[in-house]
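Appendix B, record 7
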Amino acid sequence: MQFERFLLNDVLIDTQKMSVKVDGIWLPLEHKQLALIRLLIEKSPEPVSRDEIINQLWPNLVVSDNSVSQLVAQIRKTLNDTSKEPTFIKTVPRLGYQCIAIVASAPTLAQRANSPQKNIPINWLVLGVCIGFIITFIALFDFNIFKSTPKIKYISRITSSPGAEAYLSFSPNGRFLAYSQIVTGQSQYDLVVHDLQTNSSHTIKSSGYSEQAPNWSEDGKWLLYYRYSPFSCEVRGLSVHNAIELWRLNRDVSLLECDSAQVPQKVILNKSGQLFVNEMSQGRKGIVKYNINMDDINNLSLSKKETIAQAEAYRTRGDQIIYKQDMQWLQGTIGKDGVIRKTGLVEVGDEPYFGLIDGSWLSAGSELKLHSPGQQTSTLYKPYGEISEIAINSETGLIAHTEGSAEVNLYEFSITSNTFTAVSSNSRIDTQATISSDGMQVAYVSTTSHADPQITHVEVWLKHRFKSSPSLLTSLLKKDKPKLLLFSPNGEYLAMLSESNTLFIINTFSKIPRSVIKENQTLQNIYWSNDGKSLYFKTIEEKRSQFWKHDIASASNTLLPELEQPYTALINKNESFGSYINDIGVYLYEVLQGEVPLHHLSYSLELYRPAIYKDGIYYVVRQGHQLSLFNYNITEQTNEFVSDVGLYLYDVNVELGLSATSDGEYIIINRIENLEMDIVLHEFLTD
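Structure tokens (predicted):
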């Protein structure tokens, strides 16, 4: 059994808190008292001699039998036990001491939270007349109010140093928290484990490579993680079956190769000998299952690969899984055969994580929120900055999360001068940038670096090349936040596609937006005519494609006959075309003749939106943490390195991309800078 929390008769012992709960009161336990209790339980029902106790508790020290007697007396006093009528520790003459208590696992906080509290019965006031009222009351009353409502208690910050900590993972027994740590000024992550029992942190791996996304095997005997170098990636497993001080010396096994452009998802190793990892297949991310062979405690090997689901991200707890597919979070179970059986949708607006009890969810973002089974949402904690990820241990009720901030800034890169020039303020997050064909104007979406419920709008800004400061172009409701900006060829108009799939057009001089089509979920394939007087788009009605032409002068939409449905060249396409990124990836792979592997291109293009100009394609390739800008020149059929554009250390959940002038002279690019994150620890409480 696990010795983190357990019952000794009716006494609850918590080894992490070094305390014991007797008659409803928590009392402290000393280290040696706890060590003796463990020893007696492990040897039970056999007695343990005084010599063995001395050897185990005072190794390499000379102590008398009196030390053992005093220690036993202290424990008995704490537990309200006696030597004459013992219920916990019995003295066995000439042999030693024996544990005679009943030992059982303590109920988890999840089990207690699932159990409703007892209701106080309601006395009948008036028989007969009140029967109807009581029946109605019982039928309509929500008895869920009597259930325990989870709350959290702030414990402490685990880290508070310049840099970032990320990829949090609790060990199955809740004693250890593994994470990756990068110090300001460095470019590689170290693998660190925090021991919650001793409140100490141990750097397990600091190899000069980048060790990321640690995760524990279900049995707690292995720590799985990614190791990145600038040109390679591998998934590794570290044996952690012994004392934490020895883990650095333990066997570290390479399990499989991965792509150095890949943003890591945690590797899952269950008790059925199955390993699950995120890999790219045919341009799409999927969950791949391997069968795993454990020859002994120090060796692992893989066999039989099988893709079991298309998924951009996933999280597991036991045999439960949630995974993101086509912009939706699904939930299911993993069978013993490793097959996922879908059970429904996760209807949470933000990024979901498993909650403390079944059916509840936690979400990260500007607040730590709890989504209860009854679809009730409550705020548990408001961080400094943003919460980017959550880890929870249902056995101990502990929850850890990261909180911090990062700057997402816009820069203009000049091919001629080979220099970067800042375009926007570093106090906000500026994305979805587009530059006009002649390079005279840049438009971008600007949001606050932290979510504020009082801010109900997002802003679109316009920067003119010969003006020192940008100007506000328009302000839109958050539901209409633009996910695509497109200048007309002459730069007079800007088309904006919102997250609610409303298409707007705004004149860059009058700055008055108007809608072309509202909240049509089939809206796609948006692009300008060459003269900038019309905007084309596509909708689907009754499973049939319909192509439309919006005339700027008359502000009218015209349905095009099938014979006039336009062909769209790749240079006119953008993200509103469903296969846009995949088409560019396939094209580059073919013309580069495999110089960059297809899956490597897929990861990189998914991370940074490429930019097409009249003579070629600008694109960013991620190699380890380094981001490099390349130019494929279609006319000359050459692929050239342009510049390093910085580091990508962590997924900050922001759309990144490029935009180029028609001649390719100027490029607008996002850069992530000044990443700062700490780890905060809380404990769940129940009423």
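Remarks on this record: The longest strand covers residues 666-685. Residues 294 and 300 are 5 Å apart (CA to CA).
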